[in-house]
């Protein structure tokens, strides 16, 4: 891994106040691995409390609204997230794209808004199983990248490749398929941003766990992981952070 590894937990709609204890434990793990960037995106209700305490990890949002303020019942804006202590946000997760009907244009507007508020962005892309079976995986992901990446520049940006069929299923693509997709994403990033596209970390997400992290993180152009289920306890998340650290140390 040429870039600093970035290991991010997406807690989704899991997280009561009790999980603050888990967050503290994850922060202590992050402190032991200064060469690895660690982030957690908890539910909005925990962002402020976690950000107040976090020393070694970044706290982020799972989504953000494209407008800075206004009459948008139930939404959270990028300046509000930043004000609560968040340092980054996920945008374009497949659960947002499919369950909330978010288009590439919506995702792009969110990414632009997040960066305008000074937040890092993890922009998610990924094909469905039917699209992969039809041989369309790379074309679909390339279309998502061209449609949703902010055009102004690559600063503060990471991309997460999350095949929809691998999320929460225990199934992961072959190492060859991960390598091919990350190579294709890198080529798109360089086509869009020029040399700056080489510095964008491309995370893999979808059923990453302690058992497969080392193999997945060892694939060329995999710059980290976006982890769902296995990020919910410090013990399983620590094993993934440790796998990333071991790979840099060789
Ligand atoms: O969607 C994911 C992270 O954003 C992946 O979730 P799982 O790790 O639970 O498969």
Automatic annotation (TrEMBL):
GO terms for cellular component: cytosol. Keywords: Cytoplasm, Gluconeogenesis, Glycolysis, Isomerase. GO terms for biological process: gluconeogenesis; glyceraldehyde-3-phosphate biosynthetic process; glycerol catabolic process; glycolytic process. One of its GO terms (molecular function) is triose-phosphate isomerase activity. Pathway: Carbohydrate metabolism; erythritol degradation; Carbohydrate biosynthesis; gluconeogenesis; Carbohydrate degradation; glycolysis; D-glyceraldehyde 3-phosphate from glycerone phosphate: step 1/1. It is found in: Cytoplasm. It comes from the Bacteria. InterPro entries: Aldolase_TIM (IPR013785), TIM_sf (IPR035990), TrioseP_Isoase_bac/euk (IPR022896), Triosephosphate_isomerase (IPR000652), Triosephosphate_isomerase_AS (IPR020861). It catalyses: L-erythrulose 1-phosphate = D-erythrulose 4-phosphate; D-glyceraldehyde 3-phosphate = dihydroxyacetone phosphate. The active site is at residues 93, 162. Substrate binds at residues 10-12, 168, 207, 228-229. Coiled coil: none annotated. SUPFAM superfamilies: Triosephosphate isomerase (TIM). Its EC number is 5.3.1.1. Belongs to the triosephosphate isomerase family. Homodimer. Involved in the gluconeogenesis. Catalyzes stereospecifically the conversion of dihydroxyacetone phosphate (DHAP) to D-glyceraldehyde-3-phosphate (G3P). HAMAP family: TIM_B. This is Triosephosphate isomerase.
